Amino acid sequence: MSIAVSGLQKRFGGFTALQNVDLEFAQGELTALLGPSGCGKTTLLRIIAGLETADAGQVLMHGEDATGRHVRERQVGFVFQHYALFKHMTIFENVAFGLRVMDKKRRPSENEIRARVMKLLELVQLEGFEKRMPSELSGGMERRVALARAIATDPALVIYDEPFAGLDPISLSTIAKLIRKLNDALGTTSIVVTYDLMTSLKI
User: Fold this and answer.
1) For residues 162 and 84, is the Cβ–Cβ distance under 8 A?
2) Which listed site, 32, 55, 180, 185, has its alpha carbon 20 to 30 Å from 156?
3) Which residues does residue 191 pair with via DSSP β-bridges, in sequence order?
């Protein structure tokens, strides 16, 4: 899915987070947004995903105005900086969550859900961990679960908000390679936010 934003503006009280932002993201591309903390990167992502409303401007998805669409209608997978895993669920159930809450017309069968989750866990190198709880995993492994969960529903766009924050160098390199691998394998449009130039070059 191609994405374009035009004239986006967003203020929080007296603070201007976005001022007349114009950007385009081609279908299937992996794009890194590089900038220091507080420059509006996450705000931009949240507006594209439908989690935040712009004060002015437009969000176009495949050339259609999506500015007023609900987040559920935007086909966006979101990887949050702090994982946001469900601590009371196994790794399998975390990844399966988005599939289970689909409306009945789109919801896969239990066999299809299991097959898809197991395939995704293999893709993110977590096969054999499906019965573990998040508390039993390292930070890098939790981040991989978050990646799998974000793409489980086959979104057209995947947004990664600071996916490398707090990771050791080895885990960081692994996550960077996985993001590239998932983007190439699934053909989704991907946007990665980071403040680290060297990390952005790795993907």
Assistant:
1) no
2) 55
3) 31, 159
